[in-house]
Amino acid sequence: HQRDQSTAAHRQQDLNALIHHGSRWTTEGSVVKDDPTPPSGGALSGKTIAIKDNITTRDLPTTAASKTLAGYTSPFDATVVKLLRHHGAIIAAKANLDAFGMGSHTQHSHSGAALSPYSRNGVPLSPGGSSGGSAVAVAMGQCWAALGTDTGGSVRLPAAYAGVVGFKPSYGVLSRWGVVQYANSLDTVGILGRSVEGVKQVFGCLDGHDGRDPSSLSRSVKERFGRPRRVLKELRIGVPVEYNIAELSPAVRSTYLRTLGLLQDHGHSLHAVSLPTTRQALSAYYVLAPAEASSNLAKYDGIRYGYRTDGPDASPKNSLPLYARTRGEGFGEEVKRRILLGAYTLSSEAIDNYFIQAQKVRRLVQRDFDGVFAQPNPLLESDDLGTGAGDKGREGVDVLLTPTAPTLPPTVEEVKRQSSVESYMNDVFTVPASLAGLPAISVPVGLSGRETEGMEETDVQSVGMQLVGQFGDDELVLQAAELLE
Ligand code: GLN
């Protein structure tokens, strides 16, 4: 038994899911036990929760997995962390990520890459990213649940790859105060857990207006959210035709079809819908997110906080100014690529062809979604409410079901051989909901016997299925997700 535990400890350490541990990290064979003496009798009393390391905690460092913030500890807790503590949770540890949330495999981390517990031919699989550390920590039982951030899929993709549940609420529902910015107009705090029920419990504790976050939704907007009006026994489920791409791997396609069939057997109805702008969504995202990032990351100049290079400012010996050397040394390759890309697409010569076009695509993506959901978008003025499919006399759908990613996770060696653009491809199904700010969840659906034929026992045995709802339909998405478990 002891040997088992030390092997488990060894494995968890190797996976590098958690990068800073708290003093209340009570371990037994390195598996965190729920604290026997919870700080208060709240809804999350004694539950251990890992926090992605781009969310501030006053008692643990917050580095965003970048050398730029190495050794930094914030003087305050992010609002979401404060709320977790308030409800009795134990902030157990900080979870690994791609620096600043930029990546899909948690391989671009100053603290070293994170690995999935699954492997193929002896090579570990990608844990997904950028919240790969949060997903692996949940999968390995190192914490009860974890917070991540999702800008273009960073909670849903790792959840799918590690076989756990990952929920990205509607934009503005959870506070971003204390969350290290990547792309403000897309950044969302998300929740990872072993079950939808656990995720729901955490969500219930975090949902609320925060005056410190200007993008936090006010109560008056929330009052316009769809009332729980649908009969969960007869959901109208949209199947977007554009997601049936040739790149879908056989295991993903067959799990998707089987899941749709099961839902139909349970009395829900399936409806083919079209989201034509889906094809442009990924390109638009990889213009918009880096543009916002290049502007956000300008503040890491080595003067106010964080990493600063040695030596004096520009001098005959040091031809570059201090801030330029600091940034050159502090940021990793992927972050520099995004900053350069963003600076270019915002430049006067390129802005019309890139940034402005991408903004237009974003609008079209939002319009596509509004055109298929029965529920009108509560963010539109009441005059415009007619854009909901339901109001056009057609019956729209309640939720959309798609795979979370087109394939099973690649191995980390395959990831190393991928070009940046190939690795951006993993986000093709998650990015549209991010551009529109919609609630979306990835739920692991186990492979059937036939689907696992020829697969190794060490390989991942589930496929992430994604449900997307109209803006503000977070509760409905969570309820529908329970049907997939
Ligand atoms: N993989 C995407 C990116 O690198 C999404 C990241 C995220 O959601 N934080 O931008």
TrEMBL record:
Matching Gene3D superfamilies: Amidase signature (AS) domain
EC number: 6.3.5.7
GO terms for MF: ATP binding; glutaminyl-tRNA synthase (glutamine-hydrolyzing) activity
GO CC, one annotated term: mitochondrion
GO biological process assignments: glutaminyl-tRNAGln biosynthesis via transamidation; mitochondrial translation
Residues at the catalytic site: 52, 130, 154
Disordered, as annotated region: 27-48
Stretches assigned to coiled coil: none
Location within or outside the cell: Mitochondrion
Domain of life: Eukaryota
Chain ranges of the Amidase domain: 39-478
InterPro entries named among the record's database cross-references: Amidase, Amidase_CS, Amidase_dom, AS_sf, GatA
Quaternary data: Subunit of the heterotrimeric GatCAB amidotransferase (AdT) complex, composed of A, B and C subunits.
Sequence similarity: Belongs to the amidase family. GatA subfamily.
Name listed for the protein in its UniProt record: Glutamyl-tRNA(Gln) amidotransferase subunit A, mitochondrial
